[in-house]
Amino acid sequence: MTARKVIPPAIAALILVLAVASLASSRGPANPPPPAWTPVDTTIAGHPFLLPTLSEAEFFPRFSPEQLAWNGYPDHQHAYFWPGWTVPVDEDGVEYGFGSLCSGIVSRDRSDLEVEPGRLVLRSFEMESDAEAAPCYVAPFLGLCEMAERDVQAVLGFSPIGRLRILSPDDFSSYSALTGQGAWRMFRLSGDEAVVQPVGILARRTLIGHVAWDLVARWTITSHTGDALPAWLADGTSSWLSELGVHFCNYMAMVRDTGEPILLSPEQIESDLIAPVLDDPGADMIQWRRARYNAFLMVWRLVEHHGGPDRLGDLLQAVAAGEDVDKASRRIYGLDLGDLARALDPRVHGEPVGDAVQQRNPSRQP
Fold first, then answer.
1. pLDDT at position 33, please?
2. In whole angstroms, what is the distance from residue 201 CA to residue 213 CA?
């Protein structure tokens, strides 16, 4: 008799988690004046979840400096595992996304889901994993990808082209062997194929929602714009959409302790984002996380202070339609892309949440 494969610890962890369930533009509308900011209640602990979501925003910038300093960057990517989470329902009353494929570790019927040993297919996404693992070990990530797809469409006006094939290896050593990456690089995307860290590990790290949004946004944007965008804009947009700011800020605590600079020039950000993985794991972790945080800051300022997501979507859609990226940038923002990047220089504008060490645990329910 053949011995049955032992479920990796990371996958087992997932089962437990699931069970518990200043820039000027001559074109385009100016931002309307923001409303009076709501006073910050300092008698309760701040929490990133307490800030409104992007879909609730009517004015930009969305938050006062005091709100950001108290709550941190907004982060709504953890509520799927909190008590009270309900499965989203579309305009036709049909459930979709996280919770629509499985209830805990029990599969639910969906006519648009194909299930084979080690393979799940849901519309624009195909996910492969251990053939002996139950579908609900990886289905939560697939459901989050479905939600991310709708979010990218709503915010940027992009629908996926083709299908994304996602591989979730059995364990981290397999992920590292396949990608050559450390734990701080949470997926590798090449065309329509991606390798993600084992979804059980991502769930245990409370990063599973962030990674789904980050991956789907990056894949969708790239599939439409190819290599026309600089890395800071593509990466910054995907990390902004996936609300990774609070985690990036937490990661910077180790950099602050070294005394190294947190904020980089646009040229250095671009260089670090496209650089190959460094041989020194510690140096690669700092370089990668810091570059991503700075790209996030550039897109954060672009959206919050210069036209909101609609203007950013206009730029990306223009490039996707074949317009030269500098021409599109001048038409929409009044500056070519190089000047636009320099106008968003994080060294000039600083960190919206302030430069103190911001230790947040956004996965903990407020």
1. 46
2. 16
